[in-house]
Amino acid sequence: MKELATITPKEIIYNLVHLKQLIFEVTDACNLRCKYCGYADLYEGYDERENLKFPFLHAKLIIDYLYAYWKKAFYQGIRRPVLISFYGGEPLLNMPFVQQVIAYIESLPESGILFRYGMTTNAMLLDRHMDFLVAKDFQLLISLDGDDQGQSYRVDLAGKNSFQRVYSNIQFLRERHPVYFDTNVNFNSVLHNRNNVEMIYGFIKRHLGKEPMLSPLNSSGVRKEKREEFEKTYRSLSDSIGQSSNCEILEKEMFIRGPHAALLMDYIRKYSGNVYRNYSQLLLDSDNLWYHPTGTCLPFSKKMFVTVKGKILQCEKIHHEYALGYVDDNGVTMDLEQAAMQYNGYVKKYQGQCQNCSVRCHCGQCVFLLDDTGKENAKCNAYSTKRNLEEWRSVALDYLEKYPDFYRRILQEVTIRG
Fold it and tell me: Which UniProt keywords apply (predicted)?
């Protein structure tokens, strides 16, 4: 039986030194009122929206805090990429902050970091700020739920569908900066009961030449009194594809963006025996390696998210109550010993379930996305028996047998990371 590991402040320091992404919640204000928004009435677990803007001083203090760690890994001639992301609310509502942050980063002494910039936007103000975004080579993720009908949950402050303005701004960007549009712009579409995969995918590919990322509604943190409304709005990605006029053709076009290809890649990565995340897995007896319970990312192993109120979290997707530190006018406060204890405490609640779970070594379940993590008798939604695992394997292998071309395409076109 593999031993369960806990994290220490030393591991958190290592993650800070090698941080891959820093995300600022630029503002909690927004110029849309999307019905399904994670900060709207359907959900709980976030700080109250107060139309705040992120103070530049706090961003500077965060950057200085991290810069001190980044210098420790500085080697002359080697540059490591770090993505600085701007999130909201709607980040274009606080564009002066974005410009100040980038100007400050560009003024820093050499640290071996190659800074890149990214933004998720609703594109309502894109016409005003696109030239700056292009000049700084932003990776731009635009929220668009398809055509006018698909976009109908994304309304402005007056309740008007945002489609015409958003689509017009997107076309303006495409005409004004065609090369940038081709290389730097992607789309994210939320699936709900007013659109479907076939409509979304067909519209965006046909009119914008892009293959959108498709996301179902977030099922974590739904208010109990809103559960029925959520269920009426929610649509499954697999079900929506299955209901399309020609699901096989659609899924072949979507390829890795489709649910079955994702299932197959998951199977190949975790259970084929041909993919290893590190040399320890390759060279040592994997049955005796230590592993961290659950699939929860270690603090800052991938990203750091700082809210407009100064809370420091390990991800923008989790409840704000799980903050590991904060920043205010006096500086950054983060007790790494306490952060490690807090993380270990939440994860430890699932230790007994992990030890008996058949997918414990390849778990993808983040405990901070489980609704009862704060409770003593917390239950993991991803718990799997051996029978569950065998059924899952059978589904994957049956699909490979039915569509062998998918396996060939995965081998030839996809890089599978452990």
Answer: 4Fe-4S, Iron, Iron-sulfur, Metal-binding, S-adenosyl-L-methionine
